[in-house]
Amino acid sequence: MSYQECINCHAKYGIEEVVYFCKKCKDILEVKIDMDKAVSVVKTGVYKNVPLSVWRYREFMSIHEATNVVTLSEGGTGLHRSRRLGEVLGLTDLWIKNEGENPTGSFKDRGMTVGVTKAVEVGAKHVICASTGNTSASLAAYAARADIRCTVLIPSGKIAYGKLSQAMIHGAKVLQVQGNFDEALDFVLKLAEKHRSIYLLNSINPFRIEGQKSLGYEICEQLDYNAPDRLIVPVGNAGNISAIWKGFTEFYKFGLISKLPKMTGIQAVGSAPIAKAIKGHSDKVVPVAEPETVATAIRIGAPVSWKKAINAINESYGTAETVTDEEILDAQKLLAQVEGIFVEPASAASIAGLKKLIRNGIINKDEKIVCVTTGHGLKDPDTAIKMCEKPIEVDAEMSAIENALGIRENM
Ligand code: F0G
C-alpha cells in the first residue's frame, strides 16, 4: 500500500486522506509508493505499452485503479540534443528537456493531471491555488476539463499576460492579491484549512509532486535507461526539483538506472533563498521579504518545499547557483536563436546557470547535462518583444522591401 508521510517526523496518513501538513509537527508530506508492487510492475514491463507520458506511469501515481483520469495528454515532451548550444558553451553532451511542449505550456500540467484526478477521486468540487502564473493557467484548464469550480490567487501587477489570459479563458475566478506570491500562498493555505470543501492544489499537495516526478522518469527513458550526470532546473517554490529527484531515485530503486544525477538548482539573484543556503552550507533557508526578478515565475521569497529541495541537492552531490536578470535574458535569446527553442525567462535561468557554472569551473565539459526548460516563451511575449529589434515598417512595394533587406533592385 502506498501512503503519505511527513518528511520530518514520518507520521503516516492514508492515500485518500485530505491533509496538507503533518498534524503532529506541521511539516510537509510526501507520497511513499508501494515499492514491492512497483518493482513487480516494472518487471512485467506493461507500462511500456503506453506512449511516453505522465499516465504511462499510472501504476506509480497512487491513484485508485477505478478513478477516471483528468487528462489533456501531458508529458512525453522532447529531450532535444543541443549540439549548437553545446558548441557555443564548449560542451559535448548537452540536452534540453522542453516542458513548454505540455498542453498549457509548462511542466505544471504533469502535476495538475494527477492533482486534479486526485481532487475528483476525493470528491472535491472546488479547487484553489496561489500562483506566479503557470500553476493557475494549468489548474484552470484541468478544473474546466473536470467540470469543477476553480479559484486562483495571483500577485498583483507582476504576472505575465499569457498566463493570466489562460486562467481567465478557462473560467477560473481570478483574485489579484495586493501583495506578492508568498502572501497569496499564505492566504490559500489558510483558506483550505478553514474551508474543508476547498481542495488545495499548490505543490504542497504531494500528488502534484507525484505527477511531476514523471519528468525524471521520462529523461531516463529518453536516454535509454540512463540518468544524466547533471540535471539543471530553475527553482521557485522548489516543488519541481524535489519531484524530479523523486523520479530519479524511484527509477534507481526500480533497478532501471544504475546512477543518479547531480541536481543543480538555479535561482534569480533577487529571489534566491535556497541558493544562498546551499552556498552557505546551511540546512536552513532565510526567506527573502521582497523577492524581485524579471523571471516572474520564480519571484518567490519563501519556498514551501525548501527542505525537500535542499535534501535533493545535498543527497545528489549537486549544487545551486544564482543568475542576474541580464544573464537570464541573454540566455533566453541565445537558446531561441541557436536551438530554435523559445522559453520564458524563468526557464532560461537553467541555461544562464549552466553558463555561470562552466565559467566558475564547476562543470566538466564532457558531462552529460540535461537542462529543463520549464515554460513556453509565449507565456510572456512582452519581455521577449522588449529585448528584440523592432519590426521595420515598409511601404507595400517590392522596392521598399528589397531596400529594407539590402538587396539591390534589378534595373
Ligand atoms: N519555471 C517556471 C516557468 C515556473 O512557472 C515555475 C514555478 C518554476 C520554474 C519553479 O518551479 O516552483 O516548482 O520550484 N511556478 C509556480 C507558479 C510557482 O505558480 O506557476 P518550482
Question: What can you see in these coordinates?
Answer:
With 411 residues, the chain is of the alpha/beta class. Helix content is 39%, strand content 15%. β10, α9 (239-253) and β11 (262-268) form a beta-alpha-beta unit. The chain is globular, with a radius of gyration of 21 Å. It binds ligand F0G. Residues 106, 108, 131-135, 203, 234-240, 297-298, 344, 346-347, 374-375 line the site of ligand F0G.
Question: What's the arrangement of secondary structure elements?
Answer:
Elements: E1 3-6, E2 12-13, E3 29-32, H1 35-44, E4 79-81, H2 83-89, E5 93-98, H3 108-121, E6 126-130, H4 134-146, E7 149-155, H5 161-169, E8 173-177, H6 181-194, E9 198-200, H7 206-212, H8 214-222, E10 230-234, H9 239-253, E11 262-268, H10 273-279, H11 306-315, E12 319-323, H12 325-339, H13 345-359, E13 368-373, H14 381-387, H15 398-405
Parallel strand pairs: 5-13, 6-7, 6-9, 7-8, 10-11, 10-13, 11-12
Antiparallel strand pairs: 1-2, 1-3, 4-5
The structure holds ligand F0G.
Summarize the structure.
The chain is an alpha/beta fold. Helix content is 39%, strand content 15%. Among the domains are: 1-32; 79-105 and 208-387, 3-Layer(aba) Sandwich (Rossmann fold), CATH 3.40.50.1100.
